[in-house]
Amino acid sequence: MTIITDPRCTEYAAPGHPERPERVSRTVDLLKSRTQLPISWQTPAAAQDSVLLRAHTQRHLHRLLAPEDFDGDTPAHPHIAEHARRSVGGALRALAAARAGETAFSLLRPPGHHATPERAMGFCYLNTVAIAALEAQEGGCRRVAVFDFDVHHGNGTEEILLDQPGMAFFSIHQHPCYPGTGRTNRGGNCFNFPVRPATPRADYRAVLARALEQLKAFRPELVAVSAGFDAYQGDPLAQGTLAREDFYWLGESLRALQVPAFSILEGGYSDDLPELILAYLSGLNGWTL
Ligand SMILES: [Zn+2]
Predict the structure, then answer these.
(1) Percent of the residues in the chain that have a pLDDT greater than 70, as a whole number
(2) Does the annotation count 77 as an active-site position?
């Protein structure tokens, strides 16, 4: 499989912020320690403005260069626009690998699914997954599904892809929870699966399975996955109940679709994040846990 990462994505941090550099650096260390795994490592390419502007306004790209924080969760770290562009570049490289028939994961920060056309929020600056989905469409994919299993609703992705022909968005998330959206479906193509806080694990998994069934019925040519690992029972930011095996199962279920797919890292804030990602990638590739 192809994994895209870059050590520069660990060069920014805010004291006490859960979205911290170790999320990526510890995951890279774990994956590299498993020398038997057939992983080809790549670095992200730079994303061009024309690609970003399919999802965002020029004003937003300009705002990302200003040194004022976007909100309490989303600091204006030095060079954050470059970090966010590199995260998009990772998704584009993952998309290319998927279209070449490989499994692919972009292991970079910052995450993206909360970023709207005009606003950075919720630790997100550019909407990586939506940009990559739109690029896939531009490259000839007629039916693109975005599957978002982060515990938070992908509000930015929904706003960007709402009623876009050939696109469907499926989000499974805790509600009520940040950012408060995603209670019902929107438009003809955004399907939301809210899950109550502390829903028993088997029920949470049944909702994920239902979302996957609907995704399958959409008959996508390509699946872009917003892979967030914060629905985990040990995550500090929400009251999800999933276990490590459930992330393996998610990977396995996506593999079973037999449709080209790529995944990008969204949230996931527990110290077990590296093991959760390894479990997901194992399911995705048919590796034994
Ligand atoms: Zn999240």
Answers:
(1) 100
(2) no
